[in-house]
Amino acid sequence: MLRWFTNHSPHRSVDSGSTPLTTVTSRATSKRPRATNGPGVFAEEQKRTITELMAEQQQQEGGVPKHVNLTRYRTIKQELYDQLTDKERRAYEAKAAEQNKAAKALPDRSENFKYVD
After folding, report:
1. I want to staple 88 with a disulfide (CB 3.0 to 4.6 A). Which of 54, 84, 112, 114 is the partner?
2. What is the H or E stretch that residue 45 is in?
């Protein structure tokens, strides 16, 4: 984000010979997986279907199909999830609960020194 503001500053002119910044910024990554929910698990499993529907909608509206639109993605994901039966939704919620339980679980103590000679 800092790079964008620096590159688009009114005090910085690319025409005057300066070039945009190309410094590498570090991303903060979490060591533990994030908690998820039923729609999140559904979206992971149905990613291809959702992106195909996004591309179709964008072509119908005259947009570029490769352009990512987060609002459209979320809308389509929610529409598809709402079409599921209660039994299917409960199955996705159960998968999400299982993933969350696994994420919260502590590693087995035998794995702590597995790679130590």
Report:
1. 84
2. helix 38-45
Amino acid in position 13: S
Contact 3, 24 (CB under 8 A): no
CA distances from 1 to 19, 21, 52, 107, 117 (A): 17, 12, 29, 35, 43
Per-10-residue mean pLDDT of the chain, 117 residues long, equals 61 54 56 83 94 87 69 91 95 94 78 66
The interaxial angle of helices 47-60 and 70-82, nearest 10 deg, is 120
From CA 63, how far away is CA 82, in angstroms rounded? 26
Dihedral, 24, 29, 31, 32 alpha carbons, nearest 10:
-160
Alpha-carbon distance of 95 to 16, in angstroms, equals 56
